[in-house]
Prior knowledge:
The complex is a heterodimer. Chain A is α/β, with parallel strands linked by helices. In chain A, helix 3 (about 75-90) packs across helix 4 (about 100-110) and helix 5 runs parallel beside helix 8 (about 330-340). In chain A, strand 1 (about 1-10), helix 1 (about 15-35) and strand 2 (about 35-45) form a beta-alpha-beta unit. Chain A has two domains: about 1-180, HUPs (Rossmann fold); about 200-340, 3-Layer(aba) Sandwich (Rossmann fold). Chain A has helices at about 15-35, 45-50, 75-90, 100-110, 230-245, 250-260, 295, 330-340, and strands at about 1-10, 35-45, 60-65, 90-95, 115-125, 130-135, 140-145, 155-160, 175-180, 190-195, 210-215, 245-250, 280-290, 305-310, 325. A nine-stranded mixed beta sheet of chain A has the order 7-6-5-8-4-1-2-3-9, with helices on both faces. Chain A has a five-stranded parallel beta sheet with strand order 12-11-13-14-15. By secondary structure, chain B is of the alpha/beta class. Chain B has one domain (about 5-235): Rossmann fold. Chain B contains six helices and 15 strands. In chain B, a hairpin with a 2-residue loop joins strand 3 (about 20-25) and strand 4. At the A-B interface, helix 3, helix 4, strand 5, strand 7 and strand 10 of A face helix 3, helix 4, strand 9, strand 10 and strand 11 of B. Bound molecules: flavin-adenine dinucleotide.
Amino acid sequence: MSILYLAHTDDNGSLPKAALEALTAAQKLAADLGRPLKIGLLGADVQQAAQSIGGCNAEAFFSVSGEAFGPSRYSTDAAACAALCSAAEAGIVIAPATLRLARCLPGTAYRLGGRIDTNITALDAADGQPLPTRWYYRQRMSGQVQRDTQSFSGPWILTLAPGCAAPAECPGQAAPQAVDVPLDGLTRTTVTGVKQPNVDAQTIRPDADLLLVAGAGWTKKQNDGQAHVKEAGELLLDFLGKTKSSLGSSKSLVDLGSEGQDVLDFLTHLHQVGQTGSTPRHPKGLATCCHGEEPHVVGWRFINERRAVNLDAGCGWAHGKADVLYVADAFDVMKKVNELLGK
Amino acid sequence: MSYHIVVCGSIVPDPLQTLTPVDGPQGPALKNEMMLPAVLDPWAGHALYEAANLAARHADCRVWLVSLGPKAKLQQVMMAVAQKAPFELVAVDGPASGFTDSFAVAEALAEAIEGIADLDRDKLLLFGGWQSASRGAGSTIQMVAERLGIVDQFQGVDQLNITDNGLEVLERIEGGSWLTSTVQGAPAAFGWATGELPEPPNNPQVGMMNMKTIMPALQKAKPAALGNGFGVNNVSLPQVVRETRVVKDMPVDDIARELVDWIQG
Lengths: 343, 265
Ligand SMILES: Cc1cc2nc3c(=O)[nH]c(=O)nc-3n(C[C@H](O)[C@H](O)[C@H](O)COP(=O)(O)OP(=O)(O)OC[C@H]3O[C@@H](n4cnc5c(N)ncnc54)[C@H](O)[C@@H]3O)c2cc1C
C-alpha cells in the first residue's frame, strides 16, 4: 500500500507552506516504512504546484482540477480527496492541517472506511506503522496514537500541524494523471468570497516574528480611577504598525464587546488565543495587561520566547509561563517602546 | 422554513482545573477524572446557543442536544446547561475522554441521531463544536454528517444567516479572515467556532422545562461501544515550567529599551 501525500493549491496556484512541510514528513515516512510515495493535488489548476515538487521522488502524481475545485468547499473537496486516495490506492495519507483539508478529510476518511488523526506534531514509524504524536486537552498533554490497521479497510489519514517540519524544496518536472470527479449533487453550496478586514485593520499576521497579546487590563480603570480605552487602542495599533507583529487577545478582552463594555473595536474572536481560541506559532510573544491564566496560556504552546508586562508581580506569567515578566504599567512601557521604535 | 437542529456536544473538564494524565485500566485517563468539575465543551456550547437562537426566530423548529458522556457526569453538567437554552436531550452513556477515537464517537452519535423518532432529516441542521476541548481533533461532526448523508458541511463557523437565497455561512480561514458561502438549505452540517452570541443568562423556567426531558433521557441512555484497534500511548505533560525572570523596579525607559532590543534582536 502506498503513502499518498495530499495537498491543495492556494489562490495563486502554488502550495501553501504548511503543504510543503507535510511533504517533508511524507517523504520521511515513506523512507522509514519503505513504501512508495504518491502525490495527489487538488485545485483549479495544479500545474505550477506539481512543478514545485516534481523532484520529490514520488512514484506517481494524480490531480483533481478544474474551476469547481478552485474554491474551498466541503462537498467537492471531500469527493476529490476520496477520488485521489482511491486512484493512488493509498494505505496511508499525509496532508497538511490547513483549514481546507481539516474540514474535508475526516469525511473522506469516513467515506472510504478509513480513519483519521489530525494536527499531528511529530510523525515517527514503529513496527512498520506510523506513530503520530499529537496534543490532547488543548495542548495540555501529548500522546502517541496507535492503530491496528487491520481493524479497518480504508486509508489511515494523518494531518500535520503547521510548523512541525522544514518545508520541502524539490522542484522538477511532473505530469499529474487527471482523476475525474463527477459534480452531481456537489454544488448545493456556492462559495461567494472572502470577508477580511481591510488592509490597515488586518492585525492577524500568521508569519510575523512577534505576537503581541492584549489582555483585559487595557480596558480596566487605571491609577487615576479612569479607563483609557482609546489611548490603549492607539498604543497597540501604533506598535503593530511599527513592528508588523500579529495581534492576539485574551478571552476576557474580546468578550467585553458582547457584554456591552467600551472596547477595542479592532478585536474579534479571531484574535483570541487560548483554550477556546487559537494556538498561533511565532518565535516571540509579548503579553500586555493579560493575567496569564492557564486557559489563556495553553494557546502559547508554540510561542518560543515569551515576555509579559503586568502590574501584578504575582500574575500567572511569573509562575514559569514567561521568560521575563516586567512588573510595570503597560501604558507607560508601550508608549516608550513605540517612541524608541519610531526613531 | 422550519429546521430540526441537532447539536452534538459533550462535556470536558473545567479549563481552570489542573489536568494530569494517569494510566487507567482502559488506557490513559485523567487523574481523578470522575471528580473533576466538568462543563459543556465550550465550542459545542456556542453551537447550542446559536441553535436555540435560530430556533427562537423561526417557526416550528426543534433543538436536540446529543451528548456522549458518563451518565452521572452528564447529569451534573446538564443541571447547569438546562438553564441556558431550550433543548431536548439525547444521552449516550460512555467515556467523554479525549483519548477515544473520533470515528467511534461519531458512529455512536450518528446512531443516537438515527434513533430520534421525530427527526425530519430533510430539515436537519447538524451542529457541533468545530473542535472539542478534549481530543481537539475537529473530525467528529464531519463523520457524523457523512453517515447521515450530509455533503454540505462547514467548519469554524462564526455566523449563519437564513436568507431567501439559502443559508449564508461565515467560516474561519487562515490569516484572520472568513470564507463566505451559501448553501441552498437543509440538510447541512456546521462545526461552530465562537459564533456571535454571548453565553445566555440562567433562566430557571427554561431549566424546569428542560429537566422534564433530561431525566428520562439520562435514564434511557444506551451504553456506547467505542470499538477497538485504537489506543493512545506515552501520554505525558510537556515540560512547561520556565525560569521566569521577574523584573521589578526597573525604570520604564530601561524596560522599553530591553524590549525593543529583544524585539529587534
Ligand atoms: C471555559 C473557559 C474557556 C476559556 N478559554 C480562554 C481562552 O481561550 N483564552 C483566554 O484568554 N482565556 C480563556 N478563558 C478565561 C481565562 O480563564 C481568563 O479569565 C482570561 O484569560 C483572563 O483574561 P485577562 O488576563 O485579559 O484579564 P484579567 O484576568 O482581567 O487580567 C487583566 C490583567 O491586566 C493587568 N493590568 C491592568 N492594568 C494594567 C496596566 N496598566 N499595565 C499592566 N498590566 C495591567 C492586571 O494586573 C491583570 O493581571 C477561559 C475560561 C473558561 C472558563
